[in-house]
Structure formats: structure tokens, C-alpha cells
Design a protein that fits this description.
By secondary structure, the chain is an alpha+beta fold. The chain is built from three helices and three strands, in the order αβββαα. The protein has a three-stranded antiparallel β-sheet with strand order 1-2-3, with helices on one face.
């Protein structure tokens, strides 16, 4: 159960980033996963080869639009301090 939960979570994040519900996954009998996209022209367009869980989650996390990393003022100040320290 936990195996498919990680994969399902990755699909949910992808659908959220894409602003759509068109992405889904297929789980094979050999415990491999692959990404599919539902469109009106093709109800199950295969977007990846069957992958083991960890590789599938990494693939889905890297696929599609990415959420920009939030950077605070403290993060910026810390990075500036690191640069100064490297130059010394």
C-alpha cells in the first residue's frame, strides 16, 4: 500500500502543478509504474517506460511545470554570507 501511496502523491503534485487532472499512473503486475496522460484524442497516452517506484517518483517530480522555489530574505542574506566566506 505504501508503495502506491508515494506514486499517487507524485501524480497529485504533478496535477496540481499543471493545473489539470489529466495525469495518471498505471501499475504493472511486476510492481513497475508508468505515467499516462488523458486527452480527448488519446485516453491513455503513455509518457514513460515502466519504472521502479523510486525512479518513477523522481521522473514524475521532474516532469511538467515546476513550482518556483520560495526564497526568503533570510535565505538571500545567508547565501550572501556564504559567498563572502568563500572569498576570504
Amino acid at each position: 500500500m505504501a508503495r502506491s501511496t508515494r506514486a499517487t502523491g507524485a501524480i497529485e503534485r504533478l496535477n496540481t502543478r499543471a493545473g489539470t487532472r489529466q495525469y495518471s499512473m498505471v501499475r504493472t503486475s511486476g510492481e513497475l509504474f508508468y505515467l499516462v496522460r488523458r486527452t480527448s484524442e488519446n485516453p491513455a497516452e503513455k509518457l514513460s517506460e515502466p519504472l521502479p517506484l523510486d525512479e518513477f517518483v523522481a521522473f514524475v517530480n521532474a516532469y511538467g511545470p515546476q513550482t518556483p522555489r520560495r526564497v526568503s530574505k533570510l535565505d538571500i542574506a545567508f547565501e550572501k554570507q556564504l559567498v563572502k566566506k568563500d572569498k576570504e
